[in-house]
Amino acid sequence: MPHPAISFDDTTRLLVLTGAGISAESGLATFRGAGGLWEGSRVEDVATPEAFEANPERVLRFYAARRLGAGAAHPNAAHLALAEAEARLGDRFLLATQNVDGLHARAGSRHTLEIHGSLWRSRCSRCHAGPVEDRSTEIAHPLRACATCGSLMRPDIVWFGEMLDPAHEWAVRSFVKAADMARARLVFLAIGTSGNVYPAAGYVRYAKDLGAETWLANADEAANAHWFDHIVTGPATGVVPALLSASGPEARGVR
Predict the structure, then answer these.
(1) With contact defined as beta carbons under 8 Å apart, do 22 and 216 qualify?
(2) Which residues contact 150 (CB under 8 A, 6 or more apart)?
(3) Is 116 a catalytic residue?
(4) Measured in Å, how far apart are the chain's first and last C-alpha atoms?
(5) How does DSSP classify residue 29?
(6) Which of 11, 82, 121, 145 could bond 156 through an S-S bridge, CB–CB 3.0 to 4.6 Å?
(7) Alpha-carbon torsion, ordered 78, 79, 80, 81, to 10 deg
């Protein structure tokens, strides 16, 4: 049975939320699928401010190894399909990703919010100066001092117990409100996300309250599945290109 495709017209706006499931098909591990372990480490030991304060060397080694793995991975067909949809839709497209691996950017996506941060940047652990590029994959990752205050630099990642950047929340809400104000059709598509992590898991509710058509593409049923009008189950690499096969006027032969 063929997968359905999302229909688009020349005013449709597409808001996409991606989670770890889309990158899993590029070979990157997810912590939620392994009993709270991420690449064999407890998230409490490598993904909290307290862990960094207690043992910064261990945390930095962990993220250096993650960069090594992410650098060896390649964007898959789902990443590429999203980049192609953005190329057709332009500023009527916005992608919010919970992933920190940078694969969306490498696929060509530009209208992207990395709401959980990036493996490829560091910032000061105290004064928050930065972020600055950090591409080190040295397992013996050196401790680096902030040029502004001298405190340790840390990964530019939103760890457990930390708040998301309010500018990202504002950007998502502004995108949805703009569709509402313009009376344009809004489509919300979540891909590879458990529906457990808020506030991102609440984006579908916000979009739906303002009239969005909501789609979920996931290998498993998400915790917030009841908010979706359409659910397509399967691997992202098989499902997402088919869903977006008609994303924009050019795809329909309209000029």
Answers:
(1) no
(2) none
(3) yes
(4) 31
(5) -
(6) 121
(7) 50
Rounded Cα gap, residues 27 and 69, in angstroms: 9
CATH superfamily assigned to domain 33-72+120-157:
SIR2/SIRT2 'Small Domain' (3.30.1600.10)
Q: How far apart are CA 127 and CA 91, in angstroms?
A: 33
Q: Which residues contact 167 (CB under 8 A, 6 or more apart)?
A: none
Amino acid identity for residue 39 in this structure: E
* CATH class for the domain made up of 13-28+74-116+164-252: alpha beta
What residues does each domain of the chain span?
Answer: 13-28+74-116+164-252, 33-72+120-157
Structure tokens, 94:
């916005």
Has this prediction a pTM greater than 0.70? yes
pLDDT tens digits for 175-226? 999 999 999 999 999 999 988 888 888 999 999 999 999 999 999 888 899 9
